[in-house]
TrEMBL record:
Domain Pyridine nucleotide-disulphide oxidoreductase dimerisation: 363-469
Required co-factors: FAD
Record-annotated FAD/NAD(P)-binding domain positions: 8-324
Protein name: NAD(P)/FAD-dependent oxidoreductase
Domain of life where this protein originates: Bacteria
Keywords from the named record: FAD, Flavoprotein, NAD
Length: 482
């Protein structure tokens, strides 16, 4: 076993979107960087999450959009070409090969170290390299943990032996199962139910709560559920799975529910949340508990480790489990590491260059179902829980001229949450066709804390779906003081 020690300014564990960006920003600050990856450079997002899932969802949505447009509808003659969709997905997952991203890492002057990395005490990392052997890396300034998350599957009788799908199989499967059960009511569950129903499966969602997308405004889950039901998905709420059996490994799965009911399907997807990839990371060598999410300050420094050399960004710190937020944290942490290494001032004030702020107060998210659900910032309930004095304004998006032109029979709803004391928006939610691309306007308004009277002067183009902004603001002004 090799024990040679190699020294870098910064060692980054995990080359997902967060680790790649942290390495890049630390390198841009003039630091030497080693980036350690045990699977594929690009992480979950590139191969088993964002990219393949969106590649599966876009073609059915495009087809549905054509069918909602008179004239185009008549030109759509046949069904979805499932083989072509799956081929498109394979291309977007780079055929599960990371040559392109590894080449980018090399071009940026970052040293890629392949293998499983673990902390081995302060500023020290060991890497078990493929084919045997171990490398030891030390970091002069910082170690960044960007090891992401994995699917969390509950401990139910028979489940492990039944080999359920997780998000990995749901995004990489080569054919649609005849009958698919989806357990969970979050984003993965809703998106994957939409995708596989469109690709030919008969999908049943088993949701233990009362509806979908519980973290968004409740109308988001309701309208997305309506869309899924219209597409043929059966949604059972209040459905708690108690047991799963697959006696013949190549046969069907029997799911038993807590109320005694049974469901027989060809595959079952557990989309029941995420767990941190920290259980085999040597956390115990720096006084932390293996398997925990890593708590960080706003510069992404792990708070429970003295001397401020350990950073954690992306899913693993549990602040906002989204690629764009992991990359944002990486930009902030990379800049903070660079500034601290160079003895420069660090601006940790809210919205400062070294303080992640948006990942708590202004997280944008698009759920790529049909209709889409898009939100940024706080829901009315979150704002009220935080003790803010708010007013919510809702608008039926079907009344917007641009929405009617966009799709026949447009269905959708928008809400803005106004902070009455600070006079700006705390959150905005849009649900409807094509609203994903509308979301960034709301993100700018929330992050910029644009005063409501100034927002009035942000005139949306006619006739676009964005005109919903005008309608919301008109309603807000006409009901002022109510
Ligand atoms: C089905 C699905 C769809 C999604 N869709 C979206 C979307 O549309 N938009 C969006 O913003 N987010 C989406 N997400 C969330 C997004 O995938 C994650 O937020 C994102 O991947 C987190 O990036 P990360 O770099 O923190 O972690 P990851 O992408 O998980 O990368 C971590 C990397 O670390 C490596 N690693 C782990 N442990 C070690 C170790 N000990 N040594 C070396 N390497 C290690 C892993 O192999 C991996 O490559 C989706 C998630 C799922 C499951
Ligand atoms: N388009 C996007 O931005 C996108 C897409 C997919 C995933 N993601 C991100 O990935 C993360 C993971 O998504 P997710 O959907 O797996 O998690 P989630 O936390 O959003 O949803 C988990 C769901 O599973 C249910 N659940 C949890 N434990 C259960 C159990 N034991 N039995 C039955 N139901 C159970 C929860 O009630 C919830 O409905 C999210 O934070 C999400 O933001 C984002």
């Amino acid at each position: 076993m090799t024990t040679e020690t190699e020294e870098y300014d910064v060692v980054v564990l995990g080359a997902g979107p967060t680790g790649e960006n942290l390495a890049d920003y630390a390198r841009s600050a003039g630091l030497t960087v080693a980036l350690v990856e045990s699977e594929l450079v690009g992480g979950e997002c590139s191969y088993w999450a964002c990219m393949p899932s969106k590649a599966l969802l876009r073609p059915p949505t495009a087809l549905a959009e054509a069918r909602r447009s008179p004239g185009a509808r008549q030109a759509v003659k046949g069904p979805l070409d499932v083989a072509a969709v799956l081929a498109h997905r394979d291309e977007y997952a780079s055929y599960w090969k990371d040559d392109g991203q590894a080449a980018w890492v090399a071009k940026e002057g970052i040293d890629l170290v392949r293998g499983h990395g673990r902390l081995a005490g302060e500023r020290r990392v060991t890497v078990d390299v493929p084919g045997g052997g171990r490398r030891t890396l030390t970091a002069r300034h910082a170690v960044g943990v960007c090891t992401g998350s994995r699917a969390a599957v509950p401990d139910l009788p028979g489940l492990a032996e039944a080999k359920p799908w997780t998000s990995r199989e749901a995004t990489s499967a080569r054919q649609a199962p005849g009958r698919l059960a989806v357990v969970g009511g979050g984003v993965v569950a809703a998106e994957m139910a939409a995708a596989w129903q469109a690709l030919g499966s008969r999908v049943t969602m088993l949701v233990r709560g009362s509806g979908l997308l519980a973290r968004m405004e409740s109308f988001a889950g309701e309208l997305v559920a309506e869309g899924l039901t219209d597409a043929g998905v059966e949604i059972r709420t209040g459905a708690q799975v108690s047991e799963v059996r697959r006696p013949d490994p190549s046969g069907p799965v029997t799911i038993t529910l807590a109320d005694g009911g049974e469901l027989v399907v060809d595959e079952v997807l557990f989309a029941t949340g995420r767990a941190p990839r920290t259980e085999d990371l040597g956390l115990e060598t720096v006084g932390l508990t293996p398997g925990q999410w890593l708590t960080v300050d706003d510069t992404c420094r792990v708070t429970d480790v003295p001397d401020g050399w350990l950073y954690a960004a992306g899913d693993v710190n549990h602040r906002a489990l989204l690629t764009h937020q992991g990359k944002y944290q990486a930009r902030i942490a990379g800049a903070a590491i660079g500034a601290r290494a160079g003895g420069q001032p660090v601006d940790t004030a809210r919205w400062g260059s070294h303080a992640a702020t948006a990942d708590i107060d202004a997280v944008p998210q698009v759920v790529f179902t049909d209709p889409e659900a898009a939100s940024v910032g706080w829901t009315a309930e979150q704002a009220e829980r935080a003790g803010r004095r708010i007013r919510t304004v809702d608008y039926d998006m079907s009344k917007v001229a641009g929405a009617g032109l966009y799709a026949d029979g447009y269905r959708g709803r928008a809400r803005m949450v106004v902070d009455l004391d600070r006079d700006h928006l705390l959150g905005v939610t849009f649900v409807g066709y094509g609203v994903g691309e509308l979301l960034h306007s709301a993100t700018v308004a929330v992050v910029g804390e644009v005063p409501m009277d100034r927002l009035w002067h942000a005139v949306p183009s006619y006739p676009t779906i964005s005109e919903v902004w005008l309608r919301l603001l008109e309603k807000y002004r006409s009901t002022a003081g109510t």
